[in-house]
Amino acid sequence: MHMPIVDYVVLDAEAVRTSIELVSTVTDANLSKPTPCRAWTLYGLLAHMATQHYGFAAASRGESDPTIWKLRNLGDDPVKAYVESAEHVLDAFAQPGVAERTFPLAEFGPGAAFPGAQAVSFHFIDYIVHSWDVAKSIGKTVTFEPATLEAATAVAQIVPTGDVRRAPGTPFAADIPWSGDNPLDRIVAYLGRNPNWPN
């Protein structure tokens, strides 16, 4: 029996467009709000998200300069800057054959490179979780298609657990035990967020 091939480019586009919808509702007053993403304010989270968009877009073109991953300043209009970054990565990932390319991902370490489909899956799970982060920060609820969450669950479960999650600079905090039946809550708990944040 053959497993269905998952089109991470399509799934990633859903996650990124969802983030655009959420961020487009952000006001200047929201930017200093806390987020579930460790010590980041919403502005800090958006700067991280925008930086990642440009980094992954560059990687999709084979660019390996580590300075691409340096945290970006969002300028006088952070929402506009974020939307532009998201549209940039959507365009980059929509290019023919992107899933078959090799992505150099300097933030994973010198010389780190991954098959395109796998690299896009990393970006996909990030924007499922970061969309949830943004929604929580501004008091909204985010939803995804069941098939999207099924794919996101499979990607999340590849992320190692244990001491590696406690190391400085790790992308995800230690997993949080969670027994609820909401698949998005289970994903974010596995990746170190409290589904009941900020409680």
CATH topology of the domain at 8-143: Four Helix Bundle (Hemerythrin (Met), subunit A)
> How many E-type strands?
2
Low-confidence stretches: none
The helix/strand class is mainly alpha
User: What's the Cα radius of gyration?
Assistant: 16 Å
Average of per-residue pLDDT values: 91
GO molecular function: metal ion binding
InterPro entries: CHP03086, DinB/YfiT-like, Maleyloyr_isom, MDMPI_metal-binding
Domain Mycothiol-dependent maleylpyruvate isomerase metal-binding: 15-135
SSE arrangement:
Elements: H1 8-23, H2 42-60, H3 78-93, E1 102-104, E2 113-115, H4 116-137, H5 146-156, H6 183-190
Antiparallel strand pairs: 1-2
Helix pairs in contact: 1-3, 1-4, 2-3, 2-4, 4-5, 5-6
InterPro entries: CHP03086 (IPR017520), DinB/YfiT-like (IPR034660), Maleyloyr_isom (IPR017517), MDMPI_metal-binding (IPR024344)
Pfam families: MDMPI_N (PF11716)
Domain Mycothiol-dependent maleylpyruvate isomerase metal-binding: 15-135
Please provide a written account of the structure.
- The protein is mainly alpha-helical and 199 residues long.
- It is 46% helix and 3% strand.
- It has a domain at 8-143: Four Helix Bundle (Hemerythrin (Met), subunit A).
- It has a two-stranded antiparallel sheet.
- A hairpin with an 8-residue loop joins strand 1 (102-104) and strand 2 (113-115).
- The radius of gyration is 16 Å and the shape is globular.
- The termini are far apart.
- InterPro entries: CHP03086, DinB/YfiT-like, Maleyloyr_isom, MDMPI_metal-binding.
